[in-house]
Write a structure and sequence with these properties.
The complex is a heterodimer of chains A (185) and B (270).
Chain A lengths: L2 E6 L4 H10 L8 E5 L9 H7 L4 E4 L10 E4 L5 E4 L5 E4 L11 H12 L3 E5 L8 H9 L3 E5 L8 H9 L4 E3 L1 H11 L2
Parallel strand pairs in A: 1-2, 1-7, 2-4, 3-4, 7-8, 8-9
Antiparallel strand pairs in A: 5-6
Chain B lengths: L6 H12 L8 H14 L5 H10 L4 H8 L10 H15 L5 E6 L5 H12 L6 E7 L2 H9 L1 E3 L3 H11 L9 E3 L3 E4 L7 E5 L13 E4 L8 H14 L5 E4 L14 E5 L4 E4 L2
Parallel strand pairs in B: 1-2, 1-7, 2-6, 7-8
Antiparallel strand pairs in B: 3-5, 4-5, 8-10, 9-10
Classes of the chains: A alpha/beta (185), B alpha/beta (270).
The complex binds S-adenosylmethionine.
Chain lengths: 185, 270
């Protein structure tokens, strides 16, 4: 099974909504969202996202197996990892890049578990999280996409990813959506 | 860095050489911790790691300290502690003597948080708290009870949200950098080493806290440890897990009643 994992921070929430709206109705490739959220925030992110999607949207639970037709969100205050049997593992270890969940941590873990069967996408954000992890996905044979920094509301996350690795696909949101739909086929 | 394929060999080596069994640990986090250890110690591949494990036993302590995740907070998840105050402590009050087990106590943050709340209810005197961990380093630090004041403001907020009635400062003595817990809170706590994977029941306890430990185990080991807790509880005893852990898929699920589904507090009913 292939999995798409998307990382985003400041400025990414609306992008995620647009992505969900733009997904072809027939695709069901599992999608994992790692977004920086406020600590202890009792958000209703999942409910919001559910409105825009034919997928079932839910928080990824510890040891839950990844299934088609699902969009999983990373719980706040835990890192989200993936085992080789494609079950999730949660982890409360140190923050990375001042973040938990950290996008780098998830990207690295998913690339170990999936190798080339992984597509990593990095969106707008005001820090450097995700850059190192995305490079790992690329080096392990996965597909990697970075939002065009000119389009991103906060460009430092996309920029740092491009800076340390220059073979990512760099494109605007509408192309990202097309890429996802093609990848899912 | 090492990969998933390398794990079995490392687990085997550690077991043979040092007697620690990590087989049932969640592979994704075990891999991450090993790679983190290697990075911190400047190792690049599995050969370096094996060499370290085989030829430098003096490094093994550091290794264990990095592999287990000793990250904790005072009053982590205030809603959980506040639920303990409303749903569990009133019940415990009726016992002449209360035994509490804080399993996987890390540096003692959770255990002392518990002790503070028990003290404010005048229950600490008749309580005995058994705080255990696999890591001797964590236990040493727990016993000392010295913490950085960096996060103290947050701890203090969480203390109030948990239902603390006084002021968190009251329980600590601080200088500019560090803060140390009052020794009167320590006297009813017994810190000791206990490995949930290999050690058995050691005491009947009316309340067991084991939070954010099971996520590091695979489902089989989680189940085994939950059975150990079942055996350590009297009927009507309470079990509290971390926010992202549950009894749902365990063999003991139907022997417990849910007291707080969100805060993962359960009561043994048979
Ligand atoms: C993330 S900490 C949880 C601390 C605290 N309970 C909390 O929720 O904040 C996990 C703890 O479990 C301990 N641990 C890991 N494996 C263990 C085992 N086999 N037996 C006992 N403790 C273990 C670690 O040493 C660590 O202190």
């Amino acid at each position: 099974m292939r999995i798409i994992i998307i990382g985003g921070s400041a400025g990414a929430f609306n992008l995620i909504l647009s992505i969900l709206k733009g997904l072809d109705k027939e695709i069901d490739i599992p999608i994992v969202l790692v977004l920086h959220r406020l600590k202890n925030a009792k958000t209703i992110l999942e409910d919001y996202l559910q409105l825009e999607s034919h997928y079932k949207v839910k928080e990824a639970e510890d040891k839950e197996l990844v299934k088609a037709g699902h969009i999983y969100t990373a719980a706040s205050n835990y890192h989200l990892l993936l085992n080789e049997n494609l079950s999730f593992s949660l982890d409360v270890s140190e923050e990375v890049n001042y973040s938990r969940p950290s996008i780098d941590v998830s990207f690295e873990s998913f690339s170990f578990a999936l190798n080339e069967k992984c597509c990593g996408i990095l969106l707008s954000g005001a820090n450097q999280d995700g850059a190192i992890g995305l490079k790992m996905i690329a080096e392990n044979g996965g597909k990697t996409i970075v939002q065009d920094p000119n389009e991103a509301e906060f460009s430092s996350m996309p920029l740092s990813a491009i800076k340390i690795y220059n073979n990512h696909i760099v494109c605007t949101l509408s192309k990202i959506i097309k890429n996802i739909n093609n990848y899912a086929k | 860095m090492i990969e998933f394929n390398d794990i079995d060999e490392i687990v085997f080596l550690i077991k043979k050489q040092y007697g620690y069994d990590f087989e049932g640990y969640s592979r994704a986090s075990f891999l991450r911790r090993i790679n983190r250890y290697m990075q911190l110690s400047g190792m690049v591949n599995i050969v370096n790691l094996k060499n370290d494990l085989i030829n430098y036993p003096e490094n093994f302590n550091t290794f264990i300290n990095e592999i287990v995740v000793n990250v904790s907070e005072f009053f982590r998840d205030p809603d959980f502690f506040s639920s303990l105050l409303t749903n569990v402590f009133p019940y415990l009050e009726s016992y002449p003597k209360i035994n509490v087990w804080s399993a996987g106590c890390s540096f003692g943050e959770e255990t002392y948080s518990l002790a503070i709340l028990l003290k404010e209810l005048n229950l600490l005197n008749k309580s005995r708290i058994y705080a255990t961990d696999i890591s001797t380093n964590a236990l040493d630090r727990s016993k000392k009870g010295i913490y950085s004041i960096k996060d103290f403001k947050e701890y203090s907020n969480n203390y109030f949200s948990s239902g603390g009635k006084e002021s968190l400062n009251k329980y600590f003595v601080s200088d500019g950098e560090k803060t140390i817990i009052n020794s009167e809170l320590k006297k009813d706590i017994l810190f000791s080493r206990h490995n949930l994977v290999t050690d058995g029941v050691f005491k009947e306890c009316q309340l067991i806290l084991c939070r954010n430990v099971l996520i590091y185990f695979n489902e089989e080991l989680q189940n085994k440890v939950l059975e150990l807790f079942y055996d350590s509880l009297p009927v009507h005893g309470f079990l509290a897990l971390g926010n992202k852990e549950s009894l749902r898929f365990s063999s003991i699920n139907d022997k417990f009643k849910i007291i707080d589904s969100k805060q993962k507090i359960y009561q043994k009913i048979k």
